[in-house]
């Protein structure tokens, strides 16, 4: 039956279906900043692991989608409820081979508009429990500034292709 | 504190109101006794659920939110900055040929590693505990602190100490496993019975007795056999061969002194893992050659 059909042999591990009734939630530490990500240098090992100041702690599951995270952030952050506000998500991980931390972009969402990353889950982004999530919140009339780390120069050129 | 809000629905954890309060109380529906308001642990704590007799309640699914920066209080204070740097003392040697300084350099680096490993990091627990009272907890998330382990595992009996070995590069992050020493063997058994397969911070942890000192023995056999079976190609260019002139020195010192390598990952008692013999072995080679 699968003759005419190309099936990828490199199976990306799909999310195991996760039963939220059986599995207890994990702690997710989210750090928000306006217009930009928190500088990675603010995550460091000094004084026993320092992190940026504005921390949100959530309890959620690995199959939490970016859209869901957005709604959780909006819940506590009334400013971010305006339509057109953009949320850029990144995972902050401790580098295994050095003392640094690594910022890895995983997607963005926008209020009132469906996007490609809306249904990305933390699991799909290779999130590990204990990693941080850094969110850059940009109001509709402001401009995103991702200057503090170099690989984001092409960011604004990236199409925000709305889905469907 | 132990947060026990499970969510009930499968779908998106709905945004419900009033969860933005900055308190640390579990905002979930009727958390059955937020047990043991821990004085020691910091305000954020992973949620935990013992495997047995978990109440199944109906309710909404939610992801409660807490806000604020917690004091990262209970934490093993293993400093990072005070690593001795041996190399700084010796000026660069110019007069010698090219290769010996390199060897020397390498040995020094591993030497400082060995020193770092030595007295401070080996906890007294590791020395004194007999293995039968010691359990290992695997698959811990990075949110779990020493105080959390203490709190969770002291339920099953008096504990002598908790060991949570730090990551190689990040002193405040552990490696995903920890050890708890109980006063009594029965308590250790009990903790295994209840906590093996239980969830801590959204992860299923495995709790087992630690295996004894003799465990890494079979691993050691591997390397001489493998080396003999693959002879080095003869047609190499000369400089490399000259460097590797001596197979005999490579055969490292008595096998009894080689700890289990870093491959032997998380299990055995932690003192085997510390530092890893991988960093040590070049030193031995360099010494025997010169």
Characterize the structure shown.
Chain A: One of its GO terms (molecular function) is transcription corepressor activity. Chain A: One of its GO terms (cellular component) is nucleus. Chain A: Keywords: Repressor, Transcription, Transcription regulation. Chain A: Residues 143-164 are annotated as: Disordered. Chain A: This is 18 kDa Sin3-associated polypeptide. Helices cover 7% and strands 25% of the residues of chain A. Chain A has 164 residues and is mostly beta strands. Chain A has one domain: ASAP complex, SAP18 subunit (Ubiquitin-like (UB roll)), CATH 3.10.20. In chain A, strands 2-1-5-3-4 form a five-stranded mixed beta sheet. In chain A, a hairpin with a 6-residue loop joins strand 3 (86-94) and strand 4 (101-110). Chain A is globular and about 50 Å long. Chain A starts with 25 loop residues before the first strand and ends in a 26-residue tail after the last strand. Chain B has ten helices and eight strands. A four-stranded antiparallel beta sheet of chain B has the order 4-5-3-8, covered by helices on one side. A three-stranded antiparallel beta sheet of chain B has the order 1-6-7, with no helix packed on it. By secondary structure, chain B is of the alpha+beta class. Residues 1-43, 51-61, 68-129, 214-218, 238-249 and 255-290 of chain B have low confidence and may be disordered. Chain B has helices at residues 99-117, 124-128, 146-153, 185-195, 217-220, 222-229, 238-243, 247-250, 270-273, 281-289, and strands at residues 48-49, 65-67, 134-138, 159-163, 177-182, 199-200, 203-204, 206-209. Helix content of chain B is 27%, strand content 10%. The radius of gyration of chain B is 25 Å and the shape is elongated. Strand 2 of chain A pairs antiparallel with strand 2 of chain B.
């Amino acid at each position: 039956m699968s003759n005419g059909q190309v099936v990828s042999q490199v199976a990306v591990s799909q999310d195991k279906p996760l039963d939220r009734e059986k599995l207890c939630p994990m702690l997710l530490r989210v750090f928000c900043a306006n217009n930009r990500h928190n500088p990675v240098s603010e995550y460091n090992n000094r004084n026993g692991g320092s992190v940026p100041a504005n921390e949100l702690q959530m309890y959620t599951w690995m199959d939490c989608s970016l859209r869901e995270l957005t709604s959780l952030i909006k819940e506590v952050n009334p400013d971010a409820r305006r339509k057109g506000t953009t949320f850029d998500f990144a995972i902050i991980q401790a580098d295994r081979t050095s003392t640094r931390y690594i910022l890895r972009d995983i997607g963005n969402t926008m209020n009132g508009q469906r996007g490609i990353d809306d249904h990305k889950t933390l699991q799909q982004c290779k999130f590990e429990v204990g990693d941080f999530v850094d969110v850059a919140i940009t109001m509709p009339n402001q401009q995103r500034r991702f200057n503090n780390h170099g690989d984001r120069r092409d960011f604004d050129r990236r199409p925000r292709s709305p889905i469907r | 504190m132990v947060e026990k809000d499970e969510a009930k629905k499968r779908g998106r954890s709905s945004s419900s109101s009033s969860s933005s309060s900055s308190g640390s109380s579990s905002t979930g529906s009727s958390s059955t006794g937020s047990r043991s308001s821990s004085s020691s642990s910091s305000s954020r704590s992973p949620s935990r659920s013992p495997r047995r007799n978990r109440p199944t309640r109906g309710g909404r699914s939610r992801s409660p939110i807490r806000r604020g920066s917690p004091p990262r209080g209970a934490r093993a204070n293993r400093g990072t900055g005070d690593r001795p740097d041996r190399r700084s003392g010796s000026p660069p040697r110019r007069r010698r040929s090219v290769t010996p300084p390199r060897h020397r350099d390498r040995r020094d680096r591993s030497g400082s590693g060995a020193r770092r490993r030595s007295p401070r990091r080996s906890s007294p627990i590791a020395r004194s505990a007999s293995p039968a009272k010691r359990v290992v907890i695997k698959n811990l998330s990075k949110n779990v602190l020493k105080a959390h382990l203490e709190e969770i595992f002291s339920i099953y009996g008096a504990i002598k100490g908790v060991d949570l070995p730090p990551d190689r590069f990040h002193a405040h992050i552990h490696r995903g496993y920890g050890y708890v020493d109980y006063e009594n063997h029965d308590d250790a058994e009990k903790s295994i019975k209840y906590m093996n397969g239980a969830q801590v911070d959204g992860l299923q942890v495995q709790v087992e007795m630690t295996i004894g000192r003799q465990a890494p023995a079979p691993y050691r056999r591997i390397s001489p056999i493998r080396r003999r079976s693959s002879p080095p190609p003869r047609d190499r260019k000369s400089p490399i061969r000259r460097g590797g002139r001596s197979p005999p020195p490579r055969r490292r010192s008595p096998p009894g002194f080689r700890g289990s390598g870093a491959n032997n990952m998380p299990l055995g008692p932690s003192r085997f893992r510390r530092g890893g013999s991988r960093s040590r072995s070049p030193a031995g080679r360099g010494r025997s050659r010169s």
